[in-house]
Specification:
This protein has 182 residues and is mainly alpha-helical. The chain has five helices and no strands. It starts with a helix and ends with a helix. 17% of the residues are buried.
Length: 182
Amino acid sequence: MKSRLKRVISLALMATLFVTAPAFAQATTTMTDGHIAKIRTNCQAAILTLGQIHANDAPAYINRNQTYFSISDKLMARLNSRLTLNRYDATQLVKTASEYNSELAKFRTAYKTYDDSMSTAANMDCIKEPVSFYDRVSDARDARQAVRDIVDQLTSLINQYQQQVQAFQAQHFSSQAGSDNS
C-alpha cells in the first residue's frame, strides 16, 4: 500500500513537472541532459517541421506584403493626395498613413530577421549542437512573434484609417447637405 502511495505521489509530481516545465524552460537558459537527449532524439522530426513551417510562411509573407503595399500605395496614398489637392484637411489620414508605412517597413525587416533565423535553425546539425539548435529555434520563435505583433499593429492602423475615412465622409456629406439646403 505504501509503495502504491509513493508511486501515485511521484506520478503526480512528474505530471506537475511536465505541465510546468515549458514555462520553466523558457525562463532558464540551462539545459539538462534530458532536454539535450530529447533534442537529439527528435532532431530529424524537428528539422522537417521547421522546414515545413518555413516553407508555408514564405508565400504568406509574400501575399501579406503585396496586400499591405497595395493598401498603402493604391488606397491610402491616392486618397490622401486627392483630398489634399481638393484642399480638404486630411492631416489625420496622412498621419495614420505615415505610421502605417513605418510599420510596413518594420514588417519587412522583422520578417527578414525571422526568415534568416529559421534558415539558420533549419540548417543546423541538432545532433551535434543541440543547445545551439534550441537557442536558434528560440530566436526564430521570438522573431516570429515580433512579426505577428507588427501584423497586429498594421491591422490596427488599417482599422484606424478606415474609421477616419468614415468620419471624414460623414462630416463632408453632412456639411455638403447643409450647404445644398441653404
